[in-house]
Amino acid sequence: MVGTRVVDEASARGHDVVAVSRTGEGRSAVVTASVDVRDRVQVRELLRTADVAVSAVRPRPGEEASVPETTAALLDATAETGTRLLLVGGAGPLTSPASPALLVIDDERYVPPQWRSSAVASLAQLQVCEGHEAAWTYLSPPAILEPGLRTGTYRRGTTMLLVDGTGRSHISAEDLAVAVMDEVENPSGVRHFTVAY
């Protein structure tokens, strides 16, 4: 969902895009490729001519434990090629607005039990990034990320989950893609950030 929106946003802004997926299927306006992101050789070859890599890889249900390995492979490949990497991760590593000592992963208001394995994977993903020398940036989306409208607006924060006046933490996948491309085009230098309405 997010990857498709990022491809659309990048294409609309005039970027040359190579969209990578498990199947190689994609939009007609971009080059597509089928790659196993854990295969460093394949990824490295794709990155040789890229200025920036954006990863919005999501594991299949039940395969969340593969996230650290996949992330390490991407980081290794980008470090070898000197390519900046922007990872769209999860909200799990953010702190809760209820208490800076509480991670969102442990706050059931934002991460109910059925989403916990994904949140655990996102925390592990960020930890892998923090231990790597590659040029990476980690974007934690808000608690609720759904398809919707592109408004072109969002708020930006650092490591605390953003909520609106009603306590809701949300953004459309389309506006998350806007935030991704804004960071790609104008890097903030911040390693970990979040966005929401």
Automatic annotation (TrEMBL):
Q: Which organism is it from?
A: Promicromonospora soli
**Gene3D superfamilies to which the protein is assigned, alphabetical:** NAD(P)-binding Rossmann-like Domain
Q: What is this protein called?
A: NAD-dependent epimerase
Q: Which GO terms describe its molecular function?
A: oxidoreductase activity, acting on the CH-NH group of donors, NAD or NADP as acceptor
Q: Where is the NAD(P)-binding domain?
A: 2-187
Record field: transmembrane? none
The record, for InterPro entries, names: NAD(P)-bd_dom, NAD(P)-bd_dom_sf, Polyketide_Oxido-like
Give the matching PANTHER family. Answer: FLAVIN REDUCTASE (NADPH)
